[in-house]
Task: inverse folding
């Protein structure tokens, strides 16, 4: 055996005799050799020093012609023009293994004439490239990336994604300024408070005041801009919100402190200005972090529908825009493709996955003259069908329209903190005003009355109030994440705690959605490899279930290649190998082939026979998930009513409902039925959680107060849902309820703490007994109390 | 202790701190912290060549910007 040698380019090791020798270098393939020479020629050899021993993927792939990247349609979609007139594109680069790969790609692109900027993100392999389109074309850029052994394809840099990032970055900047300023002001404040007790000359006091003034100015006007904006919108809609309180409090305090500084008398409160803004800004930022944008949801619908179909015109297949297809056009659908229009099959036959509409994974067999429905997926059918409706009137498009309107109709339950802050803000502003009037009327000079009035607003600083909900929500979100529950928005925790009705889908939600072997009867020993290979050859869920079952005992079966293999629609699979005739399928298949079968059961049966002799029978059924029974019991204790909606037939629904003790259930439900039912529940003033997994549940999920989706569910459902159960387990669903109730309790506690704090301090402030030091300390203490209380839950849950 | 001394020291430190803050804001705005992995890895590939390349790239960009006439 000869020695293994590493390829100079990709570092993969092979035997010496299969390597290409090139001077002192060895290469595993022409691709690696080509890239190596290209890099040497370009002077990018230092890539190999930087990459070290990292193994790369050899550039062996053959790519289609890249000139189609220059097509106007392509440019329209992916290439943007920036303000300077340069072209911009977002690419995903494949084959990046290490930071040296990022370096190499950036360097190689920078060396190209006309490339202005090439920036590759190491974490997600997304590249942002800016170039002058009159010097080089996109295809040349992609060719370069391919030439150095990577591949690139463009992606639509979703506007929403960058929009959310922009907002977050904006908050980062504002917070950086606020935190910088408040940290420095705290130092100065220490000096001031020390001077307050030990005496300090007015000159030094003024110096300190001016320094604080300088520091607090950007905080109020730059960081605090968000509150002024919020206050403006609040006044426009005639709602007294927290922003108004923060904005008036902070700016009045600022103005007053300015007056103090200039008149050189009394105490300035610049530290309070920055502290209020900083704390409340942090609270707002936490809210922004845990918010899902509505635009995101609307965008996903279009994403899942291809825009082109294959139309047969005079025997030729033409790719046609979906919206251009007319009634009567003949459309070609190959196996694995989605049916996008409704119509009647005129050629071919096969199985269709209609789970999008019914939720059932059992394929439906269709032949000539049968109707195909848009939104279904061809499993193994290559068919031609005549469109009976155009896309606008198709079932699929109808579903999309219903979905859009459902998202719009989703009820928004007002958050406790928002409701509270409106009353709170109004009350504080009124109290401050009254205090001012009373002090002024009761012989005091204007100045004293004004200070006392302001001190009411300052002390009522809504710091703790602003932090109460976001901090508690954050704890809830992180608890959820640890348990495999993804809440897309913090507000949903609160909504979910108020839920009184749970609507469950059956297949895929309560049950596993796939037939599993529950009973195995072997009449005679046989080579299981044969059965495994036979089951593996079909994509039918029953066959998949058999293959999974055989695999579950850790035996590694190899797949045998049969001499002849026949998929028999709606029956099973037959195969021929040497002298053996294998049959695997249902009762009908056995009967047609003259195999004697006596076994009867109400479950799905799979028979296996060799040479017309029955060897084994497997009973399959859709198993109920673990934890389902406990979940239903727990919810009953919490007074949450459980209702099951299923597209399945009465018997299947009845048996599951019976086993779990679900009293209310509806069967043979279409997607519209489900969403209508949710709407009816809303009319009865119910707050509803809908749990589902498939496209057929999407309408109901969108309409429900909270839509919970199984992580393995269809993409569109996962996108629409508000909460995703990453591990598909019903135990997680139960914890989701628990977590949301704990969090809501926590929010109430936190709000309570901040109100009690205000209940004590506001009367003191109204009496004019608050000095700046106490105001500053109590502000921090109340905020710390709220944060600490939230942390407590985190620890409690751990134990 | 005279108050001008305090004023000078406070003013000086706030000014220097402000410079650091502005540098930080600039770095965040220009996306230098967007990709933390790359940001850390960049240290490994730092050297004279890299600086030269960066300067050349910058010059090229300026030149293109001046000359570029989109149709």
Result:
């Amino acid at each position: 055996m000869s020695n293994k040698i590493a390829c100079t380019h990709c570092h993969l090791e092979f035997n010496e005799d299969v390597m290409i020798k090139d001077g002192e270098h060895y290469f595993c393939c022409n691709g690696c050799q080509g890239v190596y020479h290209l890099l040497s020629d370009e002077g990018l050899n230092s890539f190999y020093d930087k990459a070290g021993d990292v193994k790369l993927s050899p550039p062996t792939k053959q790519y289609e012609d890249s000139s189609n990247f220059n097509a106007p349609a392509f440019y329209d979609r992916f290439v943007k023009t920036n303000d300077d007139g340069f072209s911009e594109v977002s690419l995903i680069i494949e084959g990046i293994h290490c930071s040296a790969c990022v370096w190499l790609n950036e360097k190689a692109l920078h060396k190209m004439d006309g490339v202005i900027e090439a920036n590759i993100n190491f974490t997600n392999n997304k590249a942002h490239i800016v170039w002058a389109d009159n010097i080089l074309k996109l295809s040349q850029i992609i060719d370069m990336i391919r030439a150095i052994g990577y591949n690139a394809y463009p992606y639509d840099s979703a506007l929403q994604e960058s929009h959310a990032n922009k907002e977050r970055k904006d908050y980062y900047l504002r917070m950086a300024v606020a935190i910088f300023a408040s940290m420095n002001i705290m130092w100065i404040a220490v000096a001031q408070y020390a001077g307050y007790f030990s005496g300090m000359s007015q000159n030094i006091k003024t110096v300190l005041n001016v320094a604080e003034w300088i520091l607090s100015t950007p905080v109020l006007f730059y960081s605090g801009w968000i509150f002024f904006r919020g206050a403006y919108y609040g006044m426009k809609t005639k709602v007294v919100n927290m922003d108004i309180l923060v904005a008036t409090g902070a700016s009045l305090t600022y103005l007053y402190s300015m007056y103090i500084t200039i008149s050189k008398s009394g105490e300035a409160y610049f530290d309070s200005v920055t502290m209020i803004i900083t704390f409340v800004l942090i609270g707002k930022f936490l809210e922004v972090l845990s918010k899902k944008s509505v635009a995101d949801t609307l965008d996903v619908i279009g994403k899942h529908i291809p825009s082109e179909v294959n139309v047969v015109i005079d025997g030729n297949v033409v790719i046609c825009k979906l919206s251009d297809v007319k009634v009567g056009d003949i459309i070609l659908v190959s196996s694995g493709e989605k049916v996008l229009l409704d119509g009647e099959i005129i050629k071919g036959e096969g199985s269709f996955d209609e789970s999008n509409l019914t939720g059932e994974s059992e394929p439906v067999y269709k032949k000539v003259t049968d109707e195909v429905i848009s939104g279904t997926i061809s499993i193994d059918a290559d068919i031609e069908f005549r469109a009976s409706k155009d896309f606008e009137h198709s079932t699929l498009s109808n579903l999309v329209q219903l979905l859009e309107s459902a998202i719009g109709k989703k009820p928004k339950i007002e958050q406790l903190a928002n409701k509270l802050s409106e009353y709170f803000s109004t009350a504080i502003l009124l109290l401050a005003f009254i205090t001012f009037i009373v002090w002024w009327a009761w012989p005091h000079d204007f100045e004293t009355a004004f200070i006392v009035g302001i001190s009411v607003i300052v002390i009522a600083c809504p710091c703790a109030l602003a932090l109460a909900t976001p901090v508690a929500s954050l704890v809830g979100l992180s608890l959820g994440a640890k348990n495999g529950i993804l809440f897309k928005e913090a507000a949903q925790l609160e909504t979910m705690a108020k839920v009184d009705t749970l609507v469950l889908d059956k297949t895929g939600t309560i049950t596993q959605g796939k037939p599993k072997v529950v009973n195995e009867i072997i009449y005679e020993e046989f080579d299981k490899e044969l059965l495994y290979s036979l089951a593996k050859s079909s994509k039918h869920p029953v066959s998949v279930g058999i293959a999974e079952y055989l695999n579950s005992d850790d035996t590694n079966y190899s797949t045998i290649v049969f001499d002849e293999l026949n998929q028999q629609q709606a029956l099973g699979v037959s195969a021929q190998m040497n002298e053996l005739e294998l049959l695997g399928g249902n009762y009908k298949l056995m009967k047609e082939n003259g195999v004697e079968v006596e076994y009867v059961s109400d479950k799905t049966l799979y028979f296996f026979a060799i040479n017309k002799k029955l060897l084994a029978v497997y009973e399959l059924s859709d198993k109920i998930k673990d934890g389902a029974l406990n979940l239903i019991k727990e919810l009953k204790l919490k007074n949450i009513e459980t209702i099951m909606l299923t597209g399945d037939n009465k018997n299947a629904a009845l048996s599951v409902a019976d086993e779990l003790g679900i009293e209310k259930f509806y069967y043979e439900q279409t997607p519209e039925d489900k969403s209508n039912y949710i709407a009816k529940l809303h009319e009865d003033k119910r707050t509803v959680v809908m749990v589902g997994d498939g496209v057929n549940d999407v309408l109901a999920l969108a309409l429900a107060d909270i839509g919970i989706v199984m992580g393995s569910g269809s993409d569109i459902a996962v996108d629409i849902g508000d909460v995703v159960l990453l591990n598909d387990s019903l135990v997680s669903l139960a914890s989701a309820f628990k977590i949301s109730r704990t969090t809501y309790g926590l929010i109430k506690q936190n709000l309570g703490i901040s109100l009690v704090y205000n209940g004590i301090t506001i009367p003191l402030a109204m009496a004019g007994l608050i000095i700046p030091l106490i105001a500053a300390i109590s502000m921090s203490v109340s905020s710390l109390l709220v944060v600490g209380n939230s942390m407590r839950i985190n620890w409690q849950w751990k134990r | 202790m005279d108050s001008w001394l305090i004023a000078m020291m406070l003013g000086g430190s706030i000014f220097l701190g402000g410079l650091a803050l502005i540098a930080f804001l600039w770095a965040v705005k220009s996306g230098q912290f967007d990709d933390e992995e790359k940001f850390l890895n960049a240290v490994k590939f730092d050297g004279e060549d890299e600086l030269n390349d960066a300067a050349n790239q910058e010059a090229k960009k300026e030149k293109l910007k001046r000359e570029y006439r989109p149709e």
